[in-house]
Amino acid sequence: MSILPNHHHHPAAIGRHYRRRSHRVYAAATTPTKTRPKLEKLTINPTPLITPPKLDDPSLKSTWSHRAWVATGCTTVIASLAASLIGSIDSHIWLEPILSGFVGYLFADLGSGVYHWGIDNYGDASTPVFGSQIDAFQGHHKWPWTIIKRQFANNLHALARVTTYTVLPIDLIWHDQPVAMGFVGVASGCIMFSQQFHAWAHGTKSKLPPLVVALQDGGVLVSRSQHSAHHRPPYNNNYCIVSGVWNRFLDENKVFEALEMVVFFKSGRRPRSWSEPNSDWTESTVESPAMAD
Ligand SMILES: [Zn+2]
Ligand SMILES: [Zn+2]
């Protein structure tokens, strides 16, 4: 939000600059109203892909609205899991809710891969609904190290908001269905926290909590080595960021490449991964200030 390439271009400053110019030049040629929309567009753009954010950049910090969204997202996830647990106790059915929770965990990884593939390959910052996510992921490919400098709620709030909107109505309708609630609770929880698992996949082993390293090495959470392959050429694999269990299957069977062909023949849209290498995808040569994996 604040990584404007030219901080000194405050509207007032532009106004002064314009007034000075307007003594000499025709006023109609560069009116302040003409420059304003451009400024507004820059201001709402969350990560202009021009310069990497600095380590203390406010765009990496959590705001109270980020924290509020994460809190509501967690509340809806916990409500689903509690409804599943209470329903299981009441009905003495245990196996099905546990199995459906496991299916939810597998589904979340697949869902994270499909979503990540979609926003990596199609659309741009101006795309409705997904624009800010697309822009953020493009920024992530250029400066992958920034994800570990991003504060927790800042990293999770977008998915927490989607989780709240999606899961809250489901909780209200199916709260007495322990099997459905088991699936919804685990799947939405894993999807909401996928950006945290993703951030851990960018971490350095020695700096991560030992439990996280154990879960990554055990294949419960997406591993550092698997995800680092996503950030290397040809930039068209390992999209899943929950557990990564689907990555090998999807990549070996060229599932996303098949989907890209379908999209191309149906709509003529080319995925970004076909035009590799280009500067939109490749990691910036601006060095990470602190880390190497
Ligand atoms: Zn990506
Ligand atoms: Zn990444």
TrEMBL record:
Pfam families: Lipid_desat. It comes from the Eukaryota. One of its GO terms (cellular component) is membrane. Residues 105-274 form the Lipid desaturase domain. Residues 270-293 are annotated as: Disordered. It is found in: Membrane. The keyword NAD does not apply. GO terms for biological process: fatty acid metabolic process. It is a multi-pass membrane protein. Residues 275-287 have a biased composition (Polar residues). Keywords: Membrane, Transmembrane, Transmembrane helix. Belongs to the fatty acid desaturase CarF family. This is Kua-ubiquitin conjugating enzyme hybrid, localization. It comes from Cynara cardunculus var. scolymus (Globe artichoke). The lineage of its organism: Eukaryota, Viridiplantae, Streptophyta, Embryophyta, Tracheophyta.
